[in-house]
Amino acid sequence: MIDLARIEEALRCRLDDERLRHTRGVVDAAVAMARRWGADPEKARLAALLHDYAKGLPPERLLELGRRFGVIADPAEEAFPDLLHAPVGAELVREEGLARDPEVLAAIRWHTTGTPGMGLLEKVIWLADMIEPGRDFPGVEILRRLAERDLDEALLAGLDHTIAYVLRTGRLLHLGSVRTRNWLLAERRRAGKPWPVPAVSSAW
Ligand SMILES: Nc1ncnc2c1ncn2[C@@H]1O[C@H](COP(=O)(O)OP(=O)(O)O)[C@@H](O)[C@H]1O
C-alpha cells in the first residue's frame, strides 16, 4: 500500500519548491502516459513522485552514497555527480521503505540515462521527466507529439536531444544513454520497423 502522506512529507524535506513543481508535472505526465500505453498508472505515480528523491544532495554526498551502494558505473558520474541522483535515489527509496516494487525502483534508477532492455514503466518515467508540462526547451513539443504516437521513437528522439546537449556543453558523456539508444535502434531493426527519421532539429 502506498503511503502518500509519508512520501509527500519526505519529498518536502528533500526537495525545494521548484523541484516539487517539476515532480508534480512528472506525476501528471507519467500517469497520462501510463494510461495511454498500458502501464500501471499507480506504479507510474509512485515512480514519478520519487524519481528525484536524491536530487537535492550535494555532489560529495552523492559520490559517497554512490560508492556505498556500489552504483557508480561510468566516469561521467565521477566528473558530474548529479548523474548519480537517479541510482542513489532508487537505493535511498528502497532503504527507507518508501517503495519496494522492483519496476518502480528500476524506473527511478534509470530515469536519467535509460538502460538497454528498459521496460514500459522505465520508458514512461524517462519521457515524463523530459516532457512534463513545466519543460520548455526547443523541440519539447515534437517530443510531446511523438510520445502520443510512438513511445520508442519519442525515447530515441529524447536520447538524441540529451546526447546532443551533453556534447554541446563539453561534458563527459555517460555511455548509458548511448547504449540505450543503440539498443532501441537494434530492437526496431529486429522488429522490421522502419528506421525513424531523426527528430533532432537544428535547434537542438
Ligand atoms: N548520458 C549523459 N551523459 C552526461 N550527462 C547526462 C547524460 N544524460 C543526462 N545527463 C545530464 O544529467 C543531468 C540530470 O538529468 P535529468 O535527471 O534528466 O535532469 P533534470 O535535472 O533536468 O530532471 C542533466 O544535466 C542532463 O543533461
Quick description:
This protein is mainly alpha-helical. The chain contains eleven helices and no strands. Its EC number is 3.6.1.41.
What is the mean predicted local confidence, pLDDT?
95
Whole-Å distance between the termini?
A: 42 Å
Note the total helix count: 11
Provide the structure class: mainly alpha
How is the quaternary structure best described? single chain
| Silhouette | globular
Helix-strand sequence: HHHHHHHHHHH
Biggest sheet statistics: none
Number of E-state strands: 0
Helix content: 55-70%
Unreliable parts: none
Proportion of strand residues: under 5%
Name the ligand types. adenosine-5'-diphosphate
Radius of gyration using CA atoms only: 16 Å
Overview of this protein structure:
The chain is mainly alpha-helical. It has eleven helices and no strands. Helix 9 runs antiparallel to helix 10. The protein binds adenosine-5'-diphosphate.
Overview features:
204 residues; mainly alpha; 11 helices; 0% strand; binds adenosine-5'-diphosphate
Itemize the secondary structure elements and their pairings.
Layout: H1 4-14, H2 17-37, H3 41-50, H4 59-69, H5 75-79, H6 85-95, H7 102-109, H8 120-131, H9 140-149, H10 151-169, H11 175-190
Helix pairs in contact: 2-3, 2-8, 3-7, 3-8, 4-6, 6-7, 7-8, 8-10, 9-10, 10-11
